[in-house]
Design a protein that fits this description.
Layout (H helix, E strand, L loop, with lengths): L2 H18 L6 H15 L12 H4 L7 E6 L4 E5 L5 E2 L4 H13 L1 H8 L12 H5 L10 H10 L5 H16 L7 H8 L3 H12 L7 H12 L2 E2 L1 H12 L17 H11 L5 H8 L3 E3 L4 E6 L3 E6 L10 H14 L10
Antiparallel strand pairs: 1-2, 1-7, 3-4, 5-6, 6-7
Helix pairs in contact: 2-15, 4-5, 4-7, 4-8, 7-10, 7-11, 8-12, 10-11
The protein binds glutamine (GLN).
């Protein structure tokens, strides 16, 4: 191979890399957008911490952390990014991804469906309506069923697989917030009922009590805004963690993960959210929201006060502003 051939190959490789990263917003624009959103919403006092899990009511409502991670691995943060909140329902995305990785995407569609229920995330009416089918993995019945589908010989094996998978997405070792876990485990009778119904209808094959407990534990994993943004950026980057370089989820499964997030990620307000931002996203009652701009960035905001639908008020506003300022909406195309 002569020098010219090598030169041409290097040139081509650089052009390809530049082309694939061409859409990533530049650092100055990202920092400006984060600063503007932080300043605008820091004082916003709407919403209220979740209190049906007693430990969540005690979390400082003023916590406000923002993080954006680009698909080339640059991390931008602002505000309270050290404070950990419980991941709550955001965990459902990553357990669903684990099931896809182990059993394929059809397993999710065929067992609990991928449609919005049009009901609250812990609706029992929704389970009854279609006998546990026509759900999705981002509401509690489908999420507990997802947890029950993770393969393992016993509790510890299943749990270690789940937390290990979250660690790969976050790029660090996460831990359970024990007070949140104990608080929810003592008050999760409704989720136990949901799991038993899903068991009765055959969507949970065994051990509904164990599945509910592991689900409760996965919801209690502590994360800060940066962790969540790296997890989101891994989805934005075709399943490869852009900070650690590890391929966590097969690229071919990412579109299905994002489709379920777009359909049902913000509970009953998923349509409003998609209309506003175009971004697949997931919220949790701990106050976190992640959103994914495919091929560009993952963004996360943590702020505990929630609106009536159960979504963080400051996080929704901040993510929408930042993404819209950076051209994050995947449906917005400039005509050629
Ligand atoms: N652990 C919570 C529950 O099961 C998660 C709910 C949520 O974040 N929407 O109720």
């Amino acid at each position: 191979m002569n020098v010219r051939t090598i030169g041409a190959m290097v040139g081509f490789a650089l052009m390809t890399a530049a082309a694939s990263f061409a859409q990533i917003p530049d650092e100055a624009a990202i920092n400006k957008a984060l600063a503007a959103a932080h300043a605008k919403y820091k004082g916003l006092q709407e919403g209220k911490n979740a209190d049906y899990i007693p430990a969540l009511a005690k979390v400082d409502s003023n916590v406000f952390g923002l993080a954006l991670v680009t698909v080339d691995g640059k991390v931008h943060t602002l505000g309270d990014i050290k404070t950990e909140v419980s991941i709550q329902s955001i965990s459902k995305v990553f357990t669903m991804a684990k099931v896809m990785e182990e059993s394929g995407t059809d397993a999710i569609r065929d067992n609990m469906g991928v449609d919005a229920t049009g009901q609250v995330f812990n609706s029992i009416v929704a389970v009854e309506q279609y006998k546990g089918a026509e759900m999705n993995p981002l509401v509690n019945p489908g999420a507990i069923a997802s947890t029950s589908m993770v393969k393992g010989a016993n509790y510890d094996e299943i749990w270690n697989k789940i937390i290990g998978y979250y660690n790969d997405f976050a790029g660090r070792d996460l831990t359970v917030l024990q007070d949140v876990y104990e608080s929810e485990a003592a008050t999760n009778q409704r989720n136990q009922a949901i799991a038993h119904l899903m068991y009765a209808y055959g969507h949970i094959k065994e051990e509904p009590v164990r599945a509910t407990d592991i689900y409760t534990k996965q919801c209690s994993v502590g994360v800060n805004a940066k962790d969540l943004a790296v997890m989101a950026a891994t989805l934005a980057n075709g399943g490869k963690n852009p900070v650690t370089g590890k391929q966590v989820l097969k690229s071919e499964y990412v579109p299905e993960v994002l489709a379920v997030m777009a359909t049902a990620g913000l509970y009953d307000d998923s349509g409003k959210w998609l209309y506003r931002t175009g971004l697949p996203a997931k919220s949790g009652v701990g106050g976190g929201i992640i959103a994914v701009s495919p091929g560009k960035f993952g963004i996360a905001v943590v702020s505990p006060p929630l609106d009536a639908a159960g979504n963080s008020v400051r996080a929704q506003n901040a993510i929408a502003d930042v993404s819209n300022a950076l051209g994050g909406n995947p449906y917005a195309v400039t005509p050629k």
